[in-house]
Write a structure and sequence with these properties.
By secondary structure, this protein is an all-beta fold. Helix content is 0%, strand content 48%. It contains no helices and eleven strands. A hairpin with a 4-residue loop joins strand 5 and strand 6.
Length: 124
């Protein structure tokens, strides 16, 4: 299976920024979808952003205008730029890949491969 590794998480104050990276073991252009998801203990996993192979992006309403998903195909890497962070953005963030099908789903249950996650903590 495809291997994915996230990095870039950390602790910031509200209003700050972070950029998450996800390095994939093969060309990300091979996958129909690359996505970012997040989960907090006691809550269900939720989709944050996704990028379709042809470049079409998707965003959750809660992050629209603040987060940006992008890619560098030459580096087999997808990014999540997070600006204007809020305490409610605190979660473990996961990178995932889907070989085919719909890219935007509620909780990413149809995605095929997942990274181990990176922690993001936003303080008040």
């Amino acid at each position: 299976q495809v291997q994915l590794v996230e990095s870039g998480g950390g602790s910031v104050q509200a209003g700050g920024s972070l950029r998450l990276s996800c390095v994939v073991s093969r060309s990300i252009y091979s996958m129909n979808c690359m996505g970012w998801f997040r989960q907090t203990p006691g809550k269900e996993r939720e989709g944050v952003a996704a990028l379709r192979r042809d470049g079409v992006p998707y965003y959750a309403d809660s992050v629209l205008g603040r987060f940006t998903i992008s890619r560098d195909i030459s580096k087999n890497t997808v990014y999540l730029q997070m600006d204007s962070l809020k305490p409610e953005d605190t979660a473990t963030y996961y990178c995932a890949a889907r070989w085919g099908g719909v890219c935007w789903t509620k909780a990413g249950s149809n995605y095929d491969d997942w990274g181990p996650g990176t922690q993001v903590t936003v303080s008040s």
